[in-house]
Amino acid sequence: MAINFMKSGIVYANYVNTVSPHHAWEARFSDIGCGLQTTLHAHHAKFGGILNGVDYSVWSPDIDGKIPANYSIGDFENKALNKKALREKLLLAAPHESEDKPLVAFIGRLDQQKGMHQVHHALYYCLERGAQFVMLGSASEQGIHDWFWREKNHLNDNPNCHLELTFNETLSHLIYAAADIMIVPSNYEPCGLTQIISLKYGTVPVVRGVGGLINTIFDWDYDQQHPLEERNGFVFYENDSIALESALGRSLDLYCNESALFRQLAKQGMDWDYSWKLPGDQYVGVYEHIRHK
User: Fold this and answer.
1) pLDDT tens-place string over residues 67-117
2) Right CATH number for 76-271 from 3.40.50.2000, 3.60.150.10, 3.40.50.150, 2.30.29.30?
3) How far apart are CA 275 and CA 197, in angstroms?
4) 219 in Cβ contact with 233 (< 8 Å)
């Protein structure tokens, strides 16, 4: 016999919320529910998902004091100054402007949730494609820590990549501002903030279609719910290298072959509002619903 306190909480709560609509669906209809699917189904009338928001007083390139060059949609070209600064800071090769290389980044915890096998594959795929790759994150498991330290040592003399295996908030601001593409290949992701922050900084997200990632990123080529002028990234679904290469490859192709369209996509991402305004109103609505029951 076992007692599940989470199940008791769901049964007796006035309302149950998770941090994105799609993660709420996953909790009811997939293994993400961890055995509570039946309970959540029975109480579906009081169960929902509200996206997390981002504090744009902290994460906004036009006012960010942690980056060398502020910019906005109107002066997007200043983003390139941050790319130059990051290359100088991390001793990355500085290619000639006429053959500028795309800069791909990963920022996040180095653990199984974040899809580290896919991050590892993306690193070498980017180098094979002539792109640069930067990683920032600390490992939660010793095995993953040791794995990426070996990679860091192996790639130490490669001028097109840098692995920073620690937590450094100041550096994260610069990477968001400098990178062209951000990969978020999570195994699961209740909401995700990396892709939302990336959008604000004009850094195009390449994400796996799970949890909150599917609620916030809309594929440039294939999204059916949004017109082209509202799409903001690239999405893949299967958790394998072929799917990752399909989405990441499309982002690199757009950057290298149709730079004007890539800039348009980046600016469209900056136009999306993932502040706390809408989620705040939705939470107020939940509290009002509870109060009047």
Assistant:
1) 999 999 999 999 999 999 999 999 999 987 667 899 999 999 999 999 999
2) 3.40.50.2000
3) 10
4) yes
pTM: 0.96
Tell me what pLDDT residue 293 has. 75
Does residue 37 carry a pLDDT above 80?
yes
Q: How far apart are the first and last CA of the chain?
A: 34
Contact predicate 248/126, CB 8 Å:
yes
The whole-angstrom separation of Cα 178 and Cα 108 is: 16
Distance between CA atoms of residues 293 and 14, nearest Å = 9
Amino acid (one-letter) located at 15 = Y
> Do the Cβ atoms of 140 and 111 come closer than 8 Å?
yes
Instruction: Return the pLDDT at 163.
Output: 98
Region(s) of the chain under CATH 3.40.50.2000: 76-271
Tokens linked to 287: 């509290």
Please give the single-letter amino acid code of residue 278.
Answer: L
Identify which of 269, 255, 95 has the alpha carbon closest to the alpha carbon of residue 197.
Answer: 269
